[in-house]
TrEMBL record:
It comes from the Eukaryota. The lineage of its organism: Eukaryota, Viridiplantae, Streptophyta, Embryophyta, Tracheophyta. It comes from Anthurium amnicola. The keyword Transmembrane helix applies. Keywords: Membrane, Transmembrane, Transmembrane helix. This is Uncharacterized protein. The chain crosses the membrane at residues 42-64, 76-99, 111-132, 174-196.
């Protein structure tokens, strides 16, 4: 319950007007305040950025380590580009977390666009790599056959079985790789959309990470602000109701009493 000390004609003695907070007021944007089906949007964005930060570091480290063992121009180019993109993902994620905590909506909006660009570039890079795998299918089959000691024996009756097995194994590997590629890219696109959507509304609904408490008191939390407490920039005044007592009040306690003393 909050109070309003503004005087009016019916408030002769400066008695605070009672303001009742409607705790069941529905949130018009409830459907848009969650991600990943049931996670609050703020928690979801923090989780996505944290995950991208660690995955970016691991991906960059693995890509740059692979440069030492790369023996052709394609592998060197793929590892270099992959390491660079993963480095940018880690940096953008760290800046995104900082932008949210320090309430910088302009920076967060720019980073959300950067995440879209990085997501599309990673999609193109992985798509090119997957297409190259499909074109190199015959080479993979030959490598599989050459690594078999039975197939290397001339006239072996099982050489045809080994060749069929290698073809089936390579095809299965490509199908699984394509399925993983599609799932990962769909999830990445959804995460980029969640970050962009959050950044778009961040300017309208500032998060209370840097707000100083007023007079040493904490900002009250209402149901309408289910994801974060209100701040001075996005405060929605609660409804005010007139209080009518259910029992008679003595005249000497009634500020509106017009009775004259005897």
């Amino acid at each position: 319950m909050a109070t309003n000390t503004q005087r009016d004609s019916a408030n002769l003695k400066g008695t605070p007007t009672i303001t009742i907070v409607d705790s069941v007021e529905p949130n018009r944007n409830d459907r848009m305040r969650s991600c990943c089906m049931c996670v609050p949007e703020l928690v979801g964005v923090f989780s996505i950025l944290s995950m991208y930060f660690f995955l970016g570091i691991l991906g960059a480290a693995a890509s740059f380590v692979n440069l030492g063992s790369a023996d052709n121009a394609i592998d060197i180019g793929f590892s270099s580009v992959s390491g660079t993109l993963n480095t940018f993902v880690a940096i953008a994620s760290a800046l995104g977390i900082t932008a949210i905590r320090k309430e910088k909506p302009v920076l967060m909006r720019r980073l959300s666009i950067a995440f879209w660009i990085l997501t599309v570039l990673m999609l193109l890079l992985n798509l090119i790599f997957f297409i190259l795998d499909i074109k190199s299918k015959d080479e993979y089959v030959e490598d599989c056959e050459s690594n078999s000691s039975i197939a290397s024996i001339a006239g072996s009756e099982q050489s045809e079985l080994i060749a069929a097995y290698c073809k089936r194994a390579v095809n299965t590997s490509l199908i699984i790789g394509g399925f993983k590629f599609a799932i990962i890219e769909i999830i990445s696109m959804y995460f980029a959309y969640v970050i962009f959507r959050f950044a778009k509304r961040m300017k309208k609904e500032v998060l209370p990470f840097t707000a100083e408490p007023v007079d040493g008191q904490k900002t009250p939390t209402y149901f309408v602000y289910s994801t974060q407490p209100p701040t001075s920039t996005n405060w929605v005044p609660p409804p005010t109701y007139s209080v009518r007592p259910t029992f008679p009040i003595p005249d000497d306690y009634n500020p509106d009493s017009k009775n004259t003393p005897n």
